[in-house]
Amino acid sequence: MEIRMPKLDVTMTEGTFMGWLVPDGHPVAEGEDLYTVGTDKVETDIPAPCAGTLRHGAVQADETYPVGTPLGAIE
Length: 75
Prior knowledge:
Layout: E1 2-4, E2 14-20, E3 27-28, E4 33-38, E5 43-47, E6 52-56, E7 63-66, E8 70-74
């Protein structure tokens, strides 16, 4: 399952990928916090939508990406 930059509110068009909370290649449980997204208003930890093995994408911490940008995947 692909992990993408989420849309946290109706006006959000981009967010700052703050970094992964789980190392690449590690197993994750559904609902476990995977990464943090920052906006001009708040920083939010984003949970795993399913269980599996986390694979980081080519995104960099503290960089801003449009909503929908692929960040990684859960295999």
